Amino acid sequence: MKTARQVLEHKASHAIFSIPPTATVYAALQLMADKGIGALLVMEHDKIVGILSERDYARKVILMQRTSRETLVKEIMTTAVIYVRAEQSTDDCMALMTRHRLRHLPVMAGDELLGMLSIGDLVNDIISEQRFTIEQLEHYITGGSR
């Protein structure tokens, strides 16, 4: 079983994208679109103060008939940020994401932000692990004579 840190280490990109709470929602959406991501950490003085997801936008801007150019990130961000420690297992990550219906999970080592895992990162890791197990079992069954 891998840890959150190990999954982060195998991600193609180690970039952490964030935005200040005083930015407009429009600026946040532009950054998410440019980077092809579904959530941003909201950072102030190198501390996480929230997270902004596409879901926040849909529920708190569109459905409330606000405008993204006039609404600030701090007005709609989720402030109760759920995160995992670097040494927690991928099972722990999946359980948290499922229980809280999350798609993104910051990974912390003490007070240091290491990165963010998405549900896609975890699913890709699980598929990779299963593929490896299947190959090992096939090799064992065939006696390595392929």
Automatic annotation (TrEMBL):
Transmembrane segments: none annotated. The keyword Plastid does not apply. Keywords: CBS domain, Kinase, Transferase. SMART domains: CBS. One of its GO terms (molecular function) is kinase activity. The keyword Cytoplasm does not apply. Pfam families: CBS. It comes from the Bacteria. Residues 12-68, 77-132 form the CBS domain. PANTHER family: CBS DOMAIN-CONTAINING PROTEIN, CBS DOMAIN-CONTAINING PROTEIN CBSX3, MITOCHONDRIAL. This is Histidine kinase. It comes from Cupriavidus pauculus.
